[in-house]
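It would be a great kindness if you could assist me with a short task in structural biology. The matter concerns a single protein, recorded as an amino acid sequence and a row of backbone structure tokens. The record follows directly beneath this note:
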Amino acid sequence: MAFAMVTTAVEQTPTIDEPVYAGTAVVYVQQHSLRYNPEHPPLGKLIIASGLVFAHPHLDAGFAGDQTALGRRLLYESGNDPGRLMLWARLPVIVLTLLFGLVVLAFARELVGRVGGLVALALYAFSPDVIAHGSLATLDVPASGFLLTSVWLLWRARRRPLPHLPLAGVALGAAVATKMSMLPAVPLLLALAVASVWHARGLGRGAGTPHLGTGGETPRPAKRQLLWLGAAAAAGMALVALAVVWATYLAVDPRLRWTAPADLPAVHGLRGLLIDWLPFPQPYRDGMRVQFGFEHATWQGFLFGRLYRGSLWYYLPAALLVKTPLGMPALWSAGAAAMTALPRLRPAAPYVLIPPALLLAVAMSGSRDLGVRYALFVPVFLAVAAGGAVALRRRWAQVAVAALLVFVAVSSLRTYPYYLPYSNEAFGGPSKTRLRLHDSNVDWGQDLGRLADRLDRRYPHQKVWLVYKGAGVPSYYGIDAADPRTAPPSEVHGLLVVSDTSVAKADDRLKALLRTSRPIDDVGHSITIYRRP
């Protein structure tokens, strides 16, 4: 997994979100300002900054553009080497992704032993989506990994609450200080904290527990006392998480200077009350307003060849079906079934299965059908659940688990190094993903450097027309191209190069050009080269 992520990070040019995060991280370190990218809390970008400081990036302190222009200025207009900067930005996320793999291993091993732990780790390490996003300077893997770590520590708190509950609070705070989409899990994890304290104090052990009354029942005062104790522990955990969120903002700017953006959306109703009530720093609460503003916008989606406006409630399950190796859902299902059916594993089901189910339900109600990265917690949590498959004490079950693991590994290895556009064999593999999905599922601007190499090697000195979706600057990579949408169709001849997301979302003008062109080459399964006579 480390090899796959590092080599992928070296080869890929900046994806759409990465320059924004990298630019914001540099502003955090050099200017101690919170003015950029308020829709995401600082921790993920501080993690990215921990690598960028070794690259010694230069950025004009007087720059006053928006966050998209900030990323472009840092990477392409300030004398920095964008490849070197992005590698340093990605390395801390790669290290975190590997460490979260150890959490997967430890969690599953505690539940079902060493073999189950290795099964879980294998699913995590071979997950194309985890590899793809774990090798980028983005926030999805860190947020999911911190949340899993918090749940694991809550599980351990069933035996020793005192050392583990505060640490679970730290991990929970890290999750919500990385991405606000983790907030819906907070009440659930606090409830799990109560359950862990309840169990640790013996109430969950049946008639042999201390303080039993007549007939083996726990007296009501003892139950009430334990509930209060659990509630107090959950409140303490919540305070620790809140302190972590505040600490991330204060680490950027100890004076917490903040001016709300002029175009900050107004949020009314229950959501507005929630924002006003939460005891987070003002920049965090204003960031929530930005996120709710995104949710009120109308976005374009693309699923199974259909371009649509708005969102589909089943988009994320369908996209996960396409982008998950075929053996993986079978192992997830077997592990989840074992976890709910076997008495010794059943107590773990609320910890392992409910958090991803809750977050997936919330994500399915969102307005942005832009990629499985919005549900990256699914392969992370269900890798742990899949370890439960080895608890089925049947020889055929052990053989089936081994066979499915091999199938997953082979499918993952075959897609190397093109993990972002991965789709499983039932949907034609990575080369066919563009026919069914778009955006970060396929084409996030990652192959601009590969395109430059391809044009230089195979098509030197030919006229190039380019429709590129991404954050890179084509001219920096030596691509001399014009936009065919700005020229009369009669003048567009030669190579027509189009990002696959732009193909999926093509307007009438671009569609007409594509209809009269012939595909001749493919770059990274994300950019198609056409020949137009």
About this structure: The chain is about 55% helix and 5% strand. Residues 204-216 have pLDDT under 50 and may be disordered. Strands lie at 300-303, 306-309, 464-467, 494-499, 518-523, 527-532.
